Structures are given as C-alpha cells and as structure tokens.
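#data-curation
PF: Archiving a pair of folding outputs for the training set. Convention for this channel: one message per protein, sequence first, structure tokens after, nothing in between. First:
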Amino acid sequence: MNHIDTTHAALPATLPEMCLTAYRTHAKPDAVNDKNGGVWQHIPAETVIKRVRAITLGLSALGVRKGDRVALLSENRPERTMVDLAILSLGAVNVPIYTTQAVDQVRYILEDSSARVLFVSNKKVYRHARAGIEPIEQLEYLIFFDGAAAEHPRAMTLETLEQAGTDINRQEPDAFARCVNQVRADDLATIIYTSGTTGEPKGVMLTHANFVSNVYAITSALPIKATDVALSVLPLSHIFERTVYYVFCWNGVSVYYAASVDQLGEFLNEVRPTIMTAVPRLFEKVYHRILKKGMSAGGWKRKLFEWALETGKRYAEIRDRREPAPPLLEIQQDFASRLV
C-alpha cells in the first residue's frame, strides 16, 4: 500500500490538490463505493480522477469561473463527491443543500448565494424542491446525476457534461492542470448554510485552508490507515461528514456510501466498516430498531436475544473501564455475537 510522506515534502494546500494527490498515491481499486440495483459498485481512484477532470472542464465550458457559486442538492453517493471536487478544482464555491431542506429554504439559499449552477441527484429530489428552484432567475443550468433529466429548458445530465469535458481534455491535455493550479489556500471553498431554526439560514464561509488544516490535524491525532473501510451515512451537506470525507480521502480509506439511515443496518453487515462517524441520535435509532426486532421474536428466540443483549452490556462496561474480561465472559460474548 502506497503511503504519503508528511514529514519532508510540502503538503498540498488546497482541497483538490490534496484529494487528487491522495487518489493517485493510494490508487485504491475501491476508492468510493455505492450500492446500485442491489450490487455494490466499486469505483477505482483512477476513475474518480478521470471523472473529476471531465466534470471540471465541462463546467468550465458552461462558463463557470473561479469564485462562482455552484449549488449541490444530493444524498450521499459517489457522484456527489466527484462533483464537489470538480467544483473546487475550478476554484468555484460549493453550496451544499440538504435533500430534506424546506422548499422556502432551498430558494433562499440559491438566491442568497447567487448560485449559477445547481446539481441535483435525481427527479425525486428535484420534485421535492421544485417550487424553490424554478423561480430562481440567476440559475443558468440544472445538472442531473441520473440519466433522465427533468423537463426544464436549462436542464442537462451529468453524463452530457462529462462528455463535453472529456472532449476538451482530449483537445487541451493541460486545461485541467491550469484550473487546479490557479486555486489558492485562502480561496473560498464553500458556503454552508445553517439550519435556519431561529430565522433565515446563515451562510458560513470556509476556505480551502480551513478544511486542509483540519484534515492534517485530525490525521496526526487519529490512527487512520489506508487499510480502513468507512461507511458514510451522515449527510455530506453537513460540515462534519464533509470534513471526515476529506480525512478519509487523504488517508486512502475506502468509502462506502449509504444514501439514508434506513440502509445502515443492512450496509453495516455487508461492508463491515472499520471506521465510521455518527451522532448519538443515529446510534439510538439503530439500537431501538434492533431492540424492537429482537423483542418481537417471542418464545425462546426472545429469551436468547435478551441473554445476548445483557452479555454484550456486561462485556462493553468492562472494556470501557479498560479492564480484561473474564475468560467465561469472553466465550459468552463470542457466542452471543455469532447468534444474534
């Protein structure tokens, strides 16, 4: 496994430089992963770089320039990550919007940020936010990740955008490098809007240096390895998961995406992540879902579930105190884990 030397070489100062360097260095065959049609799709780092390049040049062909605002309305998925890096590679500013955002807030964010382009994951997400999108006059393009673009005079697909960028790259092989090289550490990278629970959402402006400094600080403090596998379930529109993604990328972690919390139980079992981030509420939801299912079994299955749950609690309490578990409890814990 390749390793990035952080002791002598000058570290990348911008997000696209940092992430692209990491993708090239680690060269993971499963850099980002998404379950589509019931099958996990593994996207190699080489493909991610190629698509980021194409999207960047495609946006440039639309007239998007350094400093322009580009909004992103999508659940967690590989395309979202690639578009994010493409926006940043152009020196443009990423304006993330939650797929669950209230329609009036979607409109406010698009108007307040003066977004010229909006990326939307699919028709379902668009239908939810449509009333907040259609009135925005300064919005020049709607770009849909999924093939069937909504019927809108300004709509196009991500595939069409990428094809345009691929053609430009073929004609001008140095075009992408010129875009990335013009980005500076103190350039604005994103405007993240607050939830707006006490009034209109407020835009928080963060530079490339803000993110990059955090990535290096977290990397130096946590034992994150390129052999790790991560499950990304918190929304990438939030600063927490967004920063975590950049940390994973820099360290060569393979990232698997969950589009919603409802997929968490299934994906935990399939992906077997060695690292992931969450909030207390998420763990509570998972716990209560497991508890409900186990207690509804009835008969001996319920008794077995209750025993396994109590065994797990006793084992966890001992481990939290950093004490060795008694041999019998170790055996019981192993048995309970296999049964439940």
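PF: Second:
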Amino acid sequence: MLYISKNLVGIDFGSSSIKAFKLKDTSKGVILEKFAFRPLIADAIVDGAVMDAISVQETLKDLVSEMKIKNLNASTAVSGHSVIVKNITVNTMSKEELRESIYVEAEQYIPFDVEEVYIDFHIVGPDEKDESLMNVLLVAAKKDQVDEYSNILTNCSLKPVLVDIDSFAIENCYELNYEDDPDKIVALVNLGASKINISILRNRVPVFVRDINLGGKNYTEAIQKELQIDYEEAERLKTNIDAGGERADEIKAIIDGVSEEVCQEVIRSMDFFRNTSGLGEVNKIYLSGGCAKIQGIDEFLNNRSQIEVEIMNPFKNVKISKNVDITALSQITPLSAVGIGLAMRKVGDNQ
C-alpha cells in the first residue's frame, strides 16, 4: 500500500534542473498542491555529484521561496557512480538477521570501503532454484554524496528526512499511476539529461536496476557540433525540430542518430536481463525524463525493440489543484516522475 506523509516535499536534483512537488492525500485521491521548476547552470551537477554547491543552493532557495515550503520535511534522491544497486543471493534469514550481517554480505559486491557508504536492502523473495537461498536487492550510496544533498536541503530551510534512489522513486510514481497485470515484466526507463535509469519490475518488485551514462546532453552536444551553434540554441532545437526551419531535416537526422545509440543501450540491458535472469522477456517499457519529450522517441524504441512503449504520465491518477499552473506543469510532465515518486514517501519509509 502507498502512503503519503503530510507536508512531505519531493526535491529532484537533476543534472540540468531542480524540480519540487508537494502532494496531499485526501479521501478523493492524491492532489498535487504545489510544484516548481528551476534550470541549473551547466555542470552544476555532474553524474549525480554536486560540482557547484553555491549555485545549486541559490537555485533551491529561490524554488523554496516561490513554493513557500520553508521548514517542511523533504525527500530527495541520488544516482550516478556513487550509487550501487545489485541483485544478490544470500542464505535465507529473517530481515533482522540480514540487517545485522548486511555489511559483511555487501563487502564482496561494493567497490567502496563499506565504512564510506550507507547500505540498505530489500528482500525480493525466495530463490526459485534453491529454497535455502533468497534474493535481495542491495543498495549502497557514498556517504559524502548523501550528506551533501542533505546539507543543501538543510541550508535551504528544509528538513531532510529521506534519501532515495532515482530508480526507486520512479517505481513509486509508476505504482501510483498504473495497474498493469502483475504477471507482466515492466521496464521503467528514465531518460535524463546525463544518464538513463533502468528498473525492471516483476510482480511490481524490482528485479534489475542499471544506470547508463547517456542522455539528453548527448543530443544537445551532437546538434551543437554538427550545426556549429551555441549550446542554448541546440538545447531548444532538441525538442522543437520545426524551429530549425530549412535545417529541420538535418536536425532530425542528428537526433535519430543519437536515438539509435540510446535505444541500442536500452535494448542491450533488456537482452542482458533476459539472458541472465531466467524470468523471461520484458513485456512493456514506460519512458520518463526530459528525453521522453524528444519527438518520436517512443516509436523509435518500439520499432527497434519490438516491445510496447508508452510515455509515462506521472499525473495520470493525480488530481491537480486549481492553484497549479497547468500550462507550466505540462512543460515538465515527462520530467516529473522522480519528484512525484519522492513526494509520495513518508517519514520512516525504507521500501
């Protein structure tokens, strides 16, 4: 069951922007009360790491002021090289026993000193091939990255109470909005500015998670290089090909070239999952993230993968407050999955 904590604000730190969402749970359903969006300067956040803390803080302060959310509980998420998510197999034991031994179990799977990371886990269930074993989703995040995001929230008059993983936040958003057949294997693919998050679910439980260093920035840089234009103009043309006028066909060819690379990486992950999990084929892909706004990306991936593809709507089952600017919200709908997933969390959540 999903729970939504009163006054919990979801803060999504992307590599190109910060998004914030505040939800309210009512007898008539979930309501989006407030949201805000602010672009970040180039390279303020790179691969999940904050490179310009002052700029990020000032941007978030503006957002907090606009939403009037000072002193509220907040959740955020981390991703990138400082985050490790692995499916592991351990001897069957209770959750309490695993919590006591998880650091020992984790040492063989994590390329960091276990003293340098926060570790958590989710018990997926018994191993299908050996009843004496169970499958566990192991999560580790570098303490310095988690602490830095927590400090930024604190410095901006918010109370950090939960730090999640991007992929898990998107799963929460999916659970709120979609009710697929539990027997289906579903892939949630978040096409961000600098990375792709892939999470594959079976019976609504994550069985495969992977991050790929590829994203919207690759489209922008390819357009900039080929057309010899500035980055801002290339960024604009990325999601508005027609604005290129006589060069529209050339821009489309550039975008299709990058889309080919993106789709091949996603398909490789699907193939790896199929060949190693023994669980079968992915039945459906849901796309989210800024690159989901690229014209025809869903059809492109469908044609290459022969898997049904749909653009995720993070507000499918969310009522929108009359105070929310619908036009502004529609501009960031594909980018909202992580933030909505975070805003659904509650204090004390660890799933």
